[in-house]
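Narrative summary of target 7.
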Amino acid sequence: MEKRMSIKNIVFDLGRVLIKFEPKEYTEKNIPEEKREAFYNGIFGSDEWQMLDRGTLSYEEAKKIFKERVSGVDKEIDRLFDADLFEILQPIEENVKLLPELKKKYNLYILSNFHQPAFEHIFKKYDFFRLFDGHTVSCYYYLLKPEKEIYDTLIEKFNLIPEETVFIDDTKVNIEACEKKGIRGIHLPDYTELEQKLEEFLK
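Modeled conformation, tokenized:
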């Protein structure tokens, strides 16, 4: 049996792995009932939301488009992009607390689809980011997971050997894409299972 190479690098997605992001919950809490579906689908489910992740659209441009698309919620759209988005992106404490121990044995990286203003806000605000050896965030490269080029960027930027690297993401297609590059994957649909899944994988 061929011996598997031992893991040296652990790469984390952010949303729903290390950072809370629940747009459905947010919509239910903050948007009038009759507007919820249009708000959720027209903003969080839109192509423009992906363009924000890709770094090809600004918040000002996005707000204008969303206000034209979803009528009667101009105030709510402003509030989402001017304040709330920064507030709802909170660390998942039980997962973040695993990082200092992992850092003793592994190189830690981030690979995430994220808006630039939101990423820069949380990067400044939360100390746990200092534990990472580097990050590849979509908005700076005009690329998105699961596009193969974003995985190439990660590998080349940090000289990673794919077989010595594991990537953790809440979305299955993103894991399938990393595995095509030889990176090992942990699919994490439920963030409460991170510690257990990592333990099983690394032992």
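The longest helix spans residues 74-88.
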